[in-house]
Structure formats: structure tokens, C-alpha cells
Amino acid sequence: MAETALVWLVDDDRAVRFVLAAALRDAGLRVAEFEEAESVLALIEQHVPDLLFTDVRMSGQGGLKLLERLHAHYAQLPVIVMSAYTDVATTAAAYKHGAFDYLPKPFDLDQAVAAAQRALAQRRSQAAPPAAPSRPGPRETELIGRSAAMREVFRAIGRVAASGLNVLITGETGTGKELVARALHTHSARALRSVVALNTAAIPSELLESELFGHEMGAFTGATRRHAGRFEQADGGTLFLDEIGDMPLLLQTRLLRVLAEGEFYRVGGRELIRADVRVIAATHQDLEAKVARGEFRADLMHRLDVVRIHLPSLRERREDIGLLAEHFLARAAEELKVGAKRWSAKALAAVERFDWPGNVRQLENLCRRLAVMAPGREVRVEDLPFQRETAVPAEPGWGEGLRRWAERELAAGRSDLHAAAVAELERVLFEAALAAHDGHRQHAAEALGLGRNTLTRKLGSSRRRRE
Ligand SMILES: Nc1ncnc2c1ncn2[C@@H]1O[C@H](COP(=O)(O)OP(=O)(O)OP(=O)(O)O)[C@@H](O)[C@H]1O
């Protein structure tokens, strides 16, 4: 169950949002991004994050005004103000309105992460955790793909969208399950009403029930006003329950009852609420296996699984990779307002060969990184994190390759073999783990069974060795 702190980031400069969000995620935090203050004020009524970063000068309402309003209504929420304006008036105004910290732009990313950690530590020492939202404000994106497998998915969406039946979407992480859920909604008779999303894994279990069904004022400590749950919000529309496999058993029972009866009480409430909701659920887990282990209710699975749409992993439809890579690279340049780049033939071929454990999301993130970081207008194979020549041959039979390499080098009279081989082994492992985890150091370190600090230290020394 994710209990990671949630940071909201408000800045109208996409490039700043991009680098800062990446650094904060790298530090193990969850980040939601906002372009302007207005959407923050609209959403915060439902969820208060653990920390908020804001720029000062933005279109619409400025950061200081936002800070003032947040401080008045959510005094517990630490706010870090960032600005290129380091004049005394701005800095002083920020602190006067209750800023936790002030970062003059351009700032060092480590400094920003350190400020975030200080703010969160202070908040933890004084407050109970707030509700965590699912991803706010997702935009409607078109599903791309021309592989036979994706055409089959499109056909399934077309067939079942209008039927109003519950749908269970399965597939590995990042394969586009949420996108399919939104497409099902858009092409249904419910399209004029909202699609409301809830990520079961992102919300602490004790808050999940009130997130789903709402609560009355005073239902529990911190329930300072009545709150409509996602079921009520989705009335007449669609409720998208992501990561349904992570739903606690008790809540599964409650959900099943609500689905069967179409009515429920808010937490702490006496008024029976009716909501006409189509449920689309998604999971990357094997639900049948969870049922067999007694972790998921079979009757709930059957109720959700009226129609099943399975999304193939990216490596099962390699013919879509090029198309997606072109699309994402162009879109990233546009979004991040950097010059357009194109793929070199070699780089594109390497991208098509790669296995993409994080699927489309990983490819999309790589394109964003390349749009900003790759030097030159053409993305070369050397710019890819997983494509440098290795001195020690890896699969197949990499032990054999290593032996041949060692024998050859020994015959040539080389004397530092151990250090060279270990350095190479680590470089390959780190690059593979970072690529598999979208460059997220903490996750990569976990996957390798290392601490994050060890990975960072080793990455630093392997970089120094190469320079
Ligand atoms: N076929 C596609 N065409 C265009 N974009 C796609 C496609 N599939 C996925 N994406 C993009 O990839 C990212 C991940 O997709 P999405 O969030 O729908 O995946 P998911 O399967 O729900 O992931 P998770 O299981 O981790 O929640 C999104 O930014 C989405 O827009």
C-alpha cells in the first residue's frame, strides 16, 4: 500500500515542472503537476497534498496569491515558493504569507529535494496524513497502434463502449489501461457525464472507503465537512477503479454490495444514496490467482469482469514501437517547448529491439528525457540509456563470454582485470535497472537489492572512471 508523500508542483513552465518532478520522484515522492493556481484551488477542496511547490509569476492567479489562500485555509500544508525574482519584496512577501521556504531560480535540484524533505519531516511531526488523490486532470489522449493486437483492442472498445457493461481491463503496468477506460467512457452514452478515476493502490486503506462512498461531517477525526465520494461524483457517468487487485477484502465486500444494490450510505451517514454508475476496473495483477489465494473475492471479480479487455505488452507488439516513439518524441518537444528532434535509424531500431518492461509509459518517459537531454537534433543510439557497447558480452551465455574476454586479456598480459570486470558488470546492471525503472534511482536500487545511496555513489564513481 503506497503511503509515499504526495507533492503538488505548480509552475507554468513545463521544463521546470519536468526536471523538478523527476528529481522529486527520484527521491521516492509522488508528484502531481499543475500549470496554474486555479486548478489547485479547485482540487484541493477534495484532497490536500503533503507539500506544494509554487512559482510566483504565472498566468492567471500568481503564486503569492495562491500561497495566501492556502495559508488561510490549509495552514498545515507546507508551501515552497520558487522564483526568479529574488528581490527583497517578493521574498519577504513569500515568508509573510507563510511560505515554508523560498528557492531562488535557477535552483539546484538537490537543494529543492532537501527543502522538500525538510518540509515533509516537519509536517510528519505535526499532522495526520491527508487524503491522497488519484492523478489529477489527466488529458484525453488518442490510443495509438496499428498492430493486429491493438486493432483487436480497438474493436473490443468499439463493441462494448456503448453497451454500458462493466469492463475489466488487464495488462502490465503502463500498457494504456487508463487510456482504454477513458475511451470506453468517451464512446458511451455516459460521455456527457464525468469519468471519475480512483487508484486503489495510491490511497491509504483507511481512507479508501470514504473516498469511494463519501462521508458526513464529523464521521471521523478530520472530517470537517461533508464529502461526496467517487461513486456519487460519477453518478450517470463512469467510475474507473485502477489497481483493483489492491483493494482490501473488507472494502471488496462493501463494493460488491453497492454494485448489486446500486445504493449506499456515506461513511457516518443515514441517507441512502442512489448512484447510477458504470464501473470499469483495471489491474496488472493476475486476479484469478488472487482469488485462488483468497485475496480477492470471486463474486466481485465476476461482477467486474463482465467483459474483459486485455492489453498486450509493448514487446508483444513491436510493430507499434516505432509509431509510438515518433509520436512521443514530437509531442514531448512540443509540450516541453524545446526544438523538435528526430530519431536516427539506428536509435529507432534499438528502441524497437528493447523489451520495455514499463511498456508505453516507459517509452513516453524516455522520449521526454531525450527531448530535453539528447544533444543535437537527431537522437543517436549513444543517447539511449540501454545501448552502449559492452566490453563483457552479456546474454546469451554471458559467463562464457566473460571467460573468453578474461582469457584474451590475460594472454595479452593485462593485470587489472578484476576491477575492469566489476566496473563493467556494475555499469551494465545499473543501466538496465535504471532503464527498467524510468531512471528512478530508488526503484532501480531496490530492484538490484542495493540501497539508493549505494547506487548513487557507485554511479558517481563509474561516471568518474569513464571520464
Ligand atoms: N496505445 C497508446 N497510445 C498512446 N499513448 C499511450 C498508449 N498506451 C499508453 N499510452 C500512454 O502511456 C502512459 C501510460 O498509460 P496508462 O496510464 O493508461 O497505463 P496503465 O496501464 O493504466 O498503467 P498502470 O497500470 O501503471 O496504471 C500514458 O501517458 C498514456 O497516455
From TrEMBL:
Query: Taking every annotated instance into account, which residue ranges of this chain make up the domain Sigma-54 factor interaction?
Result: 143-372
Q: What are the annotated GO cellular component locations? A: cytoplasm
Give residue numbers for the modification (4-aspartylphosphate): D55
A Pfam family assignment: HTH_8
MF-aspect GO terms: ATP binding; phosphorelay response regulator activity; sequence-specific DNA binding
**What are the record keywords, sorted?**
Activator, ATP-binding, Cytoplasm, DNA-binding, Nitrogen fixation, Nucleotide-binding, Phosphoprotein, Repressor, Transcription, Transcription regulation, Two-component regulatory system
Q: Could you tell me which residue ranges the Response regulatory domain spans?
A: 6-120
Write out the GO biological process terms: regulation of DNA-templated transcription; regulation of nitrogen utilization
Q: Which PROSITE patterns match?
A: RESPONSE_REGULATORY (PS50110), SIGMA54_INTERACT_1 (PS00675), SIGMA54_INTERACT_2 (PS00676), SIGMA54_INTERACT_3 (PS00688), SIGMA54_INTERACT_4 (PS50045)
Keyword flag DNA repair = no
Protein's UniProt keywords contain Cytoplasm: yes
On the tree of life, the source organism's domain of life is Bacteria
Compartmental location: Cytoplasm
Task performed by this protein: Member of the two-component regulatory system NtrB/NtrC, which controls expression of the nitrogen-regulated (ntr) genes in response to nitrogen limitation. Phosphorylated NtrC binds directly to DNA and stimulates the formation of open promoter-sigma54-RNA polymerase complexes.
Tell me which NCBIfam families the record gives: ntrC
Q: What is this protein called?
A: DNA-binding transcriptional regulator NtrC
